[in-house]
Amino acid sequence: ETVGLEGHLVCEPKQRNFRMDAKALGSTLEDLGDHREEFWFWIKRAPEPYLYHCRHEDFASGRARMPFPFQPDWIVEALGIADYDPTRHYVVEAGGENIDLVENAVSPQGAPVRKVTRFTRRQNHVQVSAHLLEDANRQIICSAYIRELQQDRTTGAVLPRQVLLSWPAQQIRMKMTLEGLGVNQQMAPQRVALLFSRPNMGGVQSFDLARGPDVSTGGLRQTNGYDR
Predict the structure, then answer these.
(1) DSSP strand E in the chain: where?
(2) Are 57 and 42 in contact (CB under 8 A)?
(3) CB-CB contact of 29 with 5 (8 Å)
(4) Angstrom distance (rounded) from CA 160 to CA 182
(5) How many whole angstroms separate alpha carbon 56 and alpha carbon 171?
(6) Residues facing residue 148 across a β-bridge
(7) Fewer Cβ within 10 Å of end Cβ, the chain: N or C?
(8) Would you write out the chain's pLDDT as a tens digit for each of its 228 residues?
(9) CA neighbor of 66 nearest in space, from 143, 170, 165, 168
(10) Cα(128)–Cα(75) distance, integer angstroms
(11) How far apart are the first and last CA of the chain?
(12) 168: which DSSP letter?
């Protein structure tokens, strides 16, 4: 089943700031975010709907026990706003109308993976059509297929309008439509601190992916974020 959601997404890739929430029928179903110190995610329909969080140093060292393969960096790449490191080794694989730019990498758990950026020939031009994360057997761990594009009138930047996200093993599929595109908009420091902080969520247990459930403090946690 594919869930169609509406919500908000704000991203400052160079500062590693990312925030996305999604709603259906006025109810918040997902909250995902990232900043320099940690990332977090909460999915209401998950079997165990914890507010998961993890420090980047714990994730990089392989100490995090992920309930499913979520990484904010990967979503930023799927949106076409990530930088590619020219010092890394990439392999080009061409077949039919598709050209794949492949980076062989290792997951934080030590398993070999393939990060694939797929380009598709469209008449007189080539455009990014998908981002795939595959295991060593080329089975898809997660995917993002770009269904529609849009152009920012001010900057001319071309970004996805509709993206289909999928985690096959977890049977999770989301269709994300991005409206009201804005590029290079300035935000006040107070707004940045509020937006890119892990939220307080009443009645939701927080879970550190490297250390286990957080100690309860009566439903409150000191933070620069906001209550949901």
Answers:
(1) 2-12, 17-24, 27-34, 38-43, 51-55, 91-95, 98-106, 112-122, 125-135, 140-151, 158-167, 172-177, 206-208, 212-213
(2) no
(3) yes
(4) 12
(5) 26
(6) 162
(7) N
(8) 555 567 778 888 778 888 988 877 777 788 989 998 999 999 887 778 899 999 999 988 888 888 777 777 777 777 777 777 788 899 999 988 999 999 998 887 788 999 999 999 887 788 899 999 999 999 999 999 999 888 878 777 788 888 898 989 888 888 878 777 676 677 888 888 888 999 988 889 999 999 999 876 544 443 444 444
(9) 170
(10) 14
(11) 27
(12) G
- The Cα–Cα gap between 8 and 121 comes to 30
The residue whose two tokens read 């009201």 is: 180
Separation CA 5–CA 1 (nearest Å): 13
The residue whose two tokens read 């940690």 is 38
**Using CA atoms, how far apart are residues 66 and 71, in angstroms rounded to an integer?**
10
CA distance 182 to 12: 12
Structural domains present in the chain: 2-213 (2.50.20)
